[in-house]
Amino acid sequence: MLNYIIRRLVSLIPVIIGVSIIAFSLMHLVPGDPARSILGEKATETQLEMLREELNLNDPYIVQYGNFMGKIATGDLGDSIKSKESVASEIGSRLPATIELTLFAMTIAVVIGVLAGVIAAVKQYSWFDNLSMSGALFGVSMPIFWLGLMMIWLFSVELNWLPPSGRLSNDIELTKITNLYLVDSILTLNGTAFVDAFRHLLMPGLALATIPMAIIARMTRSSMLEVMKQDYIRTANAKGLAGRLVIFQHALKNASLPVLTVIGLQFGFLLGGAVLTETIFSWPGVGRYVVDAILSRDYPVVQSTILIIAIIFVLVNLITDILYTLFDPRIKLD
Amino acid sequence: MKTLAAEAKADQMDPALKSKKNSSLWLDSLSRVIKSKTSLIGLVIITLLIVVAIFAPQIATHSPTDQSIIDRYQSPSSEHLLGTDELGRDIFSRIVYGSRITIQIGVITVGISMIVGVFLGAVAGFFGRWVDQIIMRLIDIMMAFPSILLAIALVAVLGKSLTNAMIAVGIVGVPHFARIVRSTVLSVKETEYIEASRVIGAKNGRILFSHVLPNCLAPIIVQATLTIGTAILDAAGLSFLGLGAQPPLPEWGAMLSDGRSALQTAPWVVMFPGFAILLVVLGFNLLGDGLRDALDPRLKQ
Amino acid sequence: MKKKALWMLLTVFTLMVLVVAGCSNNDEANSEGEDSNSQDTTDSESAEEGSGGSSTFVFGRGADSEQLDPSKVTDGESIYVTNQIYDTLVRYEQEGTEVVPALATEWETSDDGLEWTFQLRDDVTFHDGTDFTAEDVVFNFERWTEGAEYVYYGYMFGASEENPGGIIEKVEATGDYEVTFTLSEPNAPFLNTLAMPPFGIASPDAIEEHGEDYFKNPVGTGPFIFEEWKQDDSITLSKNEDYFGETAKVDTVIFRVIPDNGARFMELQSGSIDAMNGMNPQDIQQAEDDEALQIIRRPSMNVSYMAMNTDKEGPLKDKKVRQAINLAIDKEKLLSLFEGIGKPAKNPMPPSLWGYNDNVEDYGYDVEEAKSLLAEAGYGDGMSITLYTMSNPRPYLPQPKFAAQAIQEMLKEVNIEVEIVENEWDSHLSATENGDHDMAFLGWTGDNGDPDNFLYVLLDKDNAKKGSAGNIAFYKNDELHDILKQAQTELDQEKRVGLYEEAQEIIHEDAPWFPIAHTTPPLAVKKEVQNYIPHPTGSEPFNYLELN
Q: By the 8 A CB rule, do A104 and A199 touch?
């Protein structure tokens, strides 16, 4: 097992290097001038030139890339051109927001998706099955930026139930420990903050969860159906175990494999989906941050953030694979 | 003896025969698609989309670009079925003309993904060894980016335009095709009749194009139909971020994005284009599902 | 009517789901048609979001500050905050750009206009407790000559690598509370320039203590003290009890970042912020109808325009074509897109400035005249040109994309095919200063209330250089140049007025621009907020405002 993991980790290295090269070269191909972007319309040509010099923007690309990778190797992600803050601390302050949103969305997606899928499979052809599966069809076809806006319109503008943006109302006091606000409010037993953070999370979380939820529901249903057809389930049934127990112990366990794969894959989708969701709900996370950085050519930020996102993404895939093998002893690791 | 048998089998796969066999297979599949009601709905939606696109000038009640600034942000009425937008243009007519752009996006992006993906996948699978290694590492690298981020970065490099957005979304879709084709090629490559054609001295290129690729057709078609939906969503997402279609093109994602500033006062400007996107993507997904079940049950994950 | 749209969509949607559900493959599907839209009666406790403490003023805005060191920034969002923390030697009066005392109580200038002597207050302390003296002023001015990052210093005083001080030859402490500036040439706007917020005096101790990180630990003398900065989220300031001027009426000021204009407005409606800038024009009516809100319009000291590239080979080199374009655009209609946030412009500088020439008559809307001018110039059969626009709203141009499309459509009338090229703000600046465009949107907010800051910067041939974002029409007129140069060194106000009026005549005739508007950017503010007096330069200290 350990061997396998190490081998997988080693094989990630060329991928990560490739990602860094692509991120680096893409950014340097973008037309425009970061110096101008920092100094604005009122800077003179001399000032621009001095800044370019200061930021080493005049060095050959190879040298710039070398510097970048050299720094990364020592754990230094560089400084944002625009804000001059270290990229590490900027990402550090935004990553929790994205993680909280993503985990929340994933939880919704998995809980509702699996539940709906199981019920739909058990009660195949029932109205629930039909309704939830057609709902799922709409779900996978959903433009989430539109869904988000429609939610804002309905729940914030028309009904005034939920806040349209942000993570926490500014009059709420909350001691930050993990910077995942839901977790923090539980840790500090802060009821008001919990409710407030939850209300802020609800719409973006739901919007982001829509597509994975739909896919997971469909996946769960079809793998459940497949497993339920198999002999040993029938045998278990015949043995007179209570029906429910059979389903959950045997079927669900076996059906969990493909579902797990989908969940792993969907994590990647969530990271991407966060870009749009964060934009719409003014969510102070990494997704919006990196898009802004791409558009304003903040090279160090883009390079480092994309690298980190890619690493998270690749690691999630690895973890999925490992879990996969844990769940299914039939798969051998060599 | 063995070679004889193999030769016979290769003979069997003579193009004329094969096409005959295929055509009945296709017909069979088609009837299966039509029998399944969900995919029929998908087919209806897509047909409707195509009809609307073709007869846009007849269906639209107004010009899609004519402005009437005084009449902006009017709510739906008999004069303007779906209301008017920020420059007083008729939303219904813009959606109708926008269908043309949507089709264009679907076809071109998936065309790019398919051509490049099939080529890379086929080459990787067929030649194996270092070629395979290089191509698949490249694919791994591409897949390590969340697709929308990669697309955004590509558009930032290429410049904002519908064409570039289509190229970006097309490129992002390449890995899926490449992987599917590669694995199909790998499984087909070892079959006897391919070996046989090798024995009788067929060249690599000929084997690849006349024997191996036709076998990948079904999964490619299924993947293409399913990808069109995602491609339309991604392209609309780019336009929504202002990176895709440029004014005055009535692209649905861009329409929605422009309407965003009036969400409180004129929600219909956002509502209807988004609904159109949903409907069309739904259509392609329904059809794709149906095709998958009909053509290639194995693909049902 | 909104309701109607909602129900229409919901109905269609529900129908669709049901149809698909009904057909779901199976014949056994006995759709018992359970109510799908079971209305969950949500516990709508819509938490009463009170006005957040007794005297906290929360200001919502679209972007975060870049740095809180005003000498290094040009973005309005940074200045907005530093304006609360720092004082300048002199400042603008509350509603205009006349100069009044601040850190300096009085000043005099030598006859040749080269030497300026300021008497400073002796009762001022920085927020870190150190006393404010003439040496601190010298320290700050010397610091600003140290590099290119002090953007405004370089730009206002003409600093360069060879001459880092620009027109300021030296700054000396001629007493504990007296400071003397020596200039290399007379400069009419000098005093006005010193009142600009970027020249706020910072505590030398703090600068030395924090070094590189000073920009996030600002220490000044102003009415508010910096407390906390959460990046991309909020900046908190507290009241300076010992302020030498008007002590603030609110205890705490919070600047909150809410990027989307619509969402920010919703936050205001729900009461979680007290004021906001950067409204969508579409929301103004909504705010005016709201009992709890008021709209405050910032007096205009800006201009938005469409520059026509006179330098690029092509039709726009011809004056007649540029005039025709001026005639072919219906400015009134175009401005209706602004929902009342602006008045049509006919000159390159705003009417609130002295020297504005009201006798200039705008071209007006006349398609026929435009067509015949185009025909005379040989473009009767049409032509196609580009219009470069920025993607983000600017204070002087609230929705550039809409305006671009409106112009595109109007010019179609006279057979001009316009291709819109939209770029992010900085790429837009790079592209236009390189002269890639045929036509381009841009605008300018005045810095110091002097016409020179508009006419010379934006239209003089000195600034028609590639790579510098001043005169992007690349308009070069020697006669105009002589007038503008003369006005710079002329100290007689009457004469300067005359010169600038003449300059505007010339510009009007040559039509390097299609001037669009002078906007009055709206702020939406809760009714409880009193005495919010917006300043034409774009931001104002909050020490006068009160919460009821």
A: no
